[in-house]
Amino acid sequence: MANRRFEMYEYRQVLVRMRLGDTDRALARAGLMGRHKAAELRAVAAAEGWLTKDSPLPDEATLAARVRRPATTRSSTTSAVEPYREEVLGLWERGIQGTTIHDYLVRRHRFGASYSSVRRFLQAHGERHPQASMMLDFEPGEAAQVDFGRGPIVDDPELGRVATWVFVMTLAWSRHTYAELVVDQTVATWLACHRRAFELFGGVPARVVIDNAKCAITRASTTDPEVQRAYGELAEGYGFRIDPCPPRDPRKKGRVEAGVSSSSGASCRCATSGAWPTPIASSSTGSSARPAIASTAPPTSGR
Fold it and tell me: 15-34, pLDDT tens digit by residue?
C-alpha cells in the first residue's frame, strides 16, 4: 500500500476519518491507507489545522500541493531490465535461471541487452526466499499414499477414443506400488481400486494419505475436511485412517507423486505399442474397468 498512488478524494476521506477519531492502525485495518502513510498525512494535517472539526477541509489543489512528493528524475543508468521488472522477478521467484530469463526476454520482448544486464538486475533486486522442506519418515505398515494420474488416450473397439486415468497406491516405507488403469474417477472406481490394491499387498496400512479428489473428500479443509460417506465406510471396514493432504499441498505425498509420473509414462508407452492386456470396458454399471494392472517394487524390497 506504501507504493500505491492515492487520488485527492481518497486523502479527503482519510482526513474525515481522522477528524472523527480514527487511529492510523484503524485506517490501515479498514484498507484506506497504510499506517506509515497515514502518520505522514496526520503530521501535515496537524500542522495545517485540518484535524479540527470546525475548520474547513482543504480543496484538492491545496491538498495536492502539501501531500504530493516532487517527481524524481530517472537516473541515466536505469537497467534495461526495469520495464520487465515484475515479469523477471516473478520468473526468478519460481526458480527460473538467469540465462533462461534472458532467452525469454529476447524471444518475448526482443530484448536487446546482454545477459550481463539481467545478471546485474537479479543481483540487485532478485533475492530469493527458499521454502524449507523436511523429509518424511515412515514405519513399515504405517501409511500408503494414493493418487490419480492422467493416462493415455486409447482406442477401444467399442467405445472409440477413451481418456484414461492411472490409480496409484504406494506403500510409504517400502515404496511397493500398485497401479491400475481406469476410465473414470467415480466413487465406485476409487473404492474398487483400494480393495484390489489391499488384496495385492496382502494387508492394509494404518492410514492412507490422499489428495482432495471429489471421490474421496467432499469438502477440502486444512482443519476439518469432509470425507465421502462410502469411502469413510470402506475405511471403517478395513480399519485404516483417512489422512487428507492440506489443500494445494501435494508435497505431503511425494512418494506416490513420483509413482504417478512413472506409471503414467509406462501406460503411455504401452498404449503406443498397442499392448493392452484386455479391452477397456465401460464402468457405467458401477464396477471399475481394469484394462491394465501393475505392481512394482524397488530392488531392496520390504513390507
Answer: 888 888 889 888 888 888 88
